[in-house]
Amino acid sequence: MVEHLEETPEDDSESLLEKLTADELEEKLNLAEDGGLDEEDAKFLEEYRRKRLAKLQEEASLAKFGQVREISKSDWKNEVSGAGDAYVVIHVAQRGHLLCNIVDTHLIELARKFPAVKFLRGESALCIPDYPERNLPSLLIYQAGDLKHQLIGPEAVGGKSITSKGLEWRLAQMGVLKSKLTEDPTKRIQISTITGRSTNRLGRRDYLSDESDDSDD
What we know:
Layout: H1 10-18, H2 22-33, H3 39-62, E1 68-71, H4 73-81, E2 87-93, H5 98-113, E3 118-123, H6 124-127, E4 138-143, E5 146-152, H7 154-157, H8 164-173, H9 185-216
Parallel strand pairs: 1-3, 2-3
Antiparallel strand pairs: 2-4, 4-5
Helix pairs in contact: 2-3
Organism: Clonorchis sinensis (Chinese liver fluke)
Protein name: Phosducin-like protein 3
Family: Belongs to the phosducin family.
């Protein structure tokens, strides 16, 4: 594969190299050092390794959060401004509030899955005095110290049927995180629910039809 890089477009070559493990790539580089590849291919491989290493280092530097931390009103400004260019998602919540508890659970999962995003939680009564309960749960999303997005209230965060993937999709659509989801998972739930209801109605109609046929006999 690597022996014929000069015959392959650069983008295609990089695509092929992406499939190599770190050990396989190192093996190819050792082959280049031993003179097993021509100079052009050897330079290409070395440049690719440099880019790949830089990318891995960048990802590692961003992956520095990984959990949901509780904050108070006095922490708010420093936690937001101290995150650099990373997105900061603050869940304004209330203990004992059913939907807030559900969102808490989902955010813990998302924090582990997307450690480059800073997830925080603040009790509404402590962080924003007199905050209306009808606005709970709320997600306030910051970047570089500025408020970028707000999800205020039950419907905005996904309602009672909210799932971790549904919340992931919402945040991905706002550019907060990079998700592998290709479609809104809540659509599948809606379609499934509608299909189930239609089947029940159809079954009911068939049942009534059978009763009618029996009575005619």
